Amino acid sequence: MSQHFDDASLQSRPTDVIRRMSNKGLILGGIGALVTAMGYFTQNETFFQSYLIGYMYWMYITLGCLGLLMVQHLSGGAWGLVSRRVFEAAVRTLPVMAVLFLPIALNATHLYEWARPEALADKMIQTKAAYLNLKFFYFRAALYFVIWIALGFTLAGWSAKQDVDAAVIPGPEDRKFRMVSGPGLGLYILSITFMSVDWMMSLDPHWTSTIFGVLFIGGAGLSALAFNVVVLSSLAETKPMSELVTKDRFHDLGKLMYAFVMLWAYFSVSQLIIVWSGNLPEEIPFYLRRFSGPWGWVSVAVLIGHFAIPFAFLLSQRIKRHRKLAARVALFILAMRAVEIAWMIAPMVRHEGHNGPNVFDFAAVLAIGVVWLPMFFSNLGARAVVPVHDPYLKEALSHDAH
Amino acid sequence: MHNTSFPEGDFRAPVPVLTPGQGYRSITDKLTGLVFTANTPRAWFAFVGVGFSLLMCLLMALTWLLLKGIGIWGNNIPVGWAFDIINFVWWIGIGHAGTLISAVLLLFKQDWRMSISRSAEAMTIFAVVCAAIFPIFHTGRPWLAIYWLLPYPNTMLLWPNFRSPLIWDVFAVSTYATVSIVFWYTGLIPDLATFRDRAKNKIVARVYGILALGWRGSAKHWYRYENASLLLAGLSTPLVLSVHTVVSFDFAVAVLPGWHATIFPPYFVAGAVYAGFAMVLTLLIPLRKMYGLQDLITMHHIENMAKVMLVTGLIVVYGYACELFFGWYSGNTYERFMLINRTWRGPYAWAYWMLLLCNFIVPQLMWSKRFRRNIPVVFFVCMFVNVGMWLERFVIIVTSLHRDFIPSSWQMYYPTRWDFLTFFGTIGLFLTLMFLFVRVLPMLAIFELKTLLPEAKPKASGDGGSH
Q: Whole-prediction pTM value?
């Protein structure tokens, strides 16, 4: 394998591959969009619940990419260099995500029990009205997007500038990435915690769990890593990524995915054991709703699909190192992320009648994808697929030689 | 190895783990010389003197405890659990750094762990010993503890309550102790053989020889050794999470406000690693000076440990923030009362603010590279963290218990002199064991350090080398 990467070959853009991936996304998403449109007319009651599921699914991929972008600036390592442009392309969809939030914001009274005027009759909701009120809710949402967009676009912008300025002085100039990423991660973790409370946990204003933010930070990381593996696997079909994203890189990313599967399982089971043992009337309904009735089987599916299967497959070194097999496991994880998010959101709001999962929940995931994915792929195609002039690129990639 | 030149002070530049200029021979001489010497540093006697005196206090406190019963402690109703569990959790937490360094950093291929892993592992074992004293003596009749704690088939068909996390603790901690000891001893074997070969005195050589289990350093031995280390590292890694997770369940599965929080498991694990790294630094900074190990335990090590402390400390602070926010957000009267009592109106509010000073405010100094590389500052921060992590358990345990659901049962808790004697006594035990270890065993992994030397690396065929 050649260790000498010249600028021209690194700068070359695999437009064909990107177009092909984008088209696949469009077809799948188009079907989802059609079904969702049908849902809008037939399932008026649950439509926005399904929309929220689809929205949160992509939000966590986007935010997971933002988190990992900052982590790799701090940690260094070849896995981060080959993934950086994928993360950046995902992060740059944030303005679109802000627009896609509008249907949720405008229908907040429909979705969130606490947002309805009659909610104040409920004493429990009354006690938290200082936090759970529409004005503050909108303000916080705006604040989250400001934080994320500022962090994401600053880092992605500097990274793009590196491509243009051929003569980059490594070191001091490069330090700014870390100066932003360190404190940025702190802000990120706080904002994603409160966002998860606002947009998901508050669907059931009577229920709380202190691990909720951590659970979804882990989930976001897993979503982003799996998405990244799927994209890199396709990009690695042609040059230059075929030479950069080697088996070792898939191995690294596979190990990270494995760690995040374990972390997610650890956070989930911690919550389960503590809530189950406490058996308090304000907490246990969370599991009672999910362990019986239509969600019972979904719970089993989450246990097996979100933990046992990826755990078993990712133990194998052969699978982790295999470009296509790793991507298949990652795709499976991405599918299970949708199931887990639906499992989390829907039982909080569907109490009577048709309270089980419905097909529109998953159609909505695809439907948001029809907006998100083309945006992502156009971002990805607009720049070189690796940070060509990053001072650490050659250093990191030369490790393969040993 | 690589031709890329990194700018001055760049954190991603490959840093030599050891100060250049070391050789196979100089490392062996240096580290065996620490043990085979007639000139034990004076400071060693001072430390052991202090440690041993405190150890005698422990013996006295425990003897009195056995004679009188646990009534000599300050525990009361409702604070039925105080110093015993605070100190247990504090010591168990401290042990975590050793496991993390030797297992997790081994799997992550972090070279810098090699200089500190041996002493950190020893610290783990001694910390577990200190921790175990508290629950065992809290049973009042420790000679019956095994009979109460371990499930075994008996004619009376009596079993411990398997739904209680206390019995999970017994399994978690005993597994932890066993794996830690085996891991540590396995790592010692090649170095014990070095000591056997270096010893001038026949009896000493004999003793090290027996401990070295016939190690001759053949290729087969090394092959098996490497496999065993990897397997033990794999076994230890889940233990980093599981032990403190189970410890956190001791509190979290109860329905007491301040204890019943789902974030407890990850928050306790982060706290354990935080406390552990602070303790490793607290011990290594004086040891390094005392034995002149600056070339082997470099600023690079100290800086890395300071970074781990900063990150885990911030995770712990995130845990405090979640406790505050969700306590309020729950809307539960008792949860909200607990918060006000803990942070503002309660008689122990001072402990909470001290805790924030120690665990949150002071460690922020570690953001600065200059401070991370300044030994007195790092040591100063570590002392705050050591105290802060103890206060954290005090705040969680005592402030939640002393004012529970019924005001008529409220009661203040005051530790007695026996509580303090027992606690400081375990510090004495810890110091004594640690300094005895340093005196008779290699405190740095000699053979592992040698793999860091340039001559241990196969010559790379230039930058353009191929697979």
A: 0.93
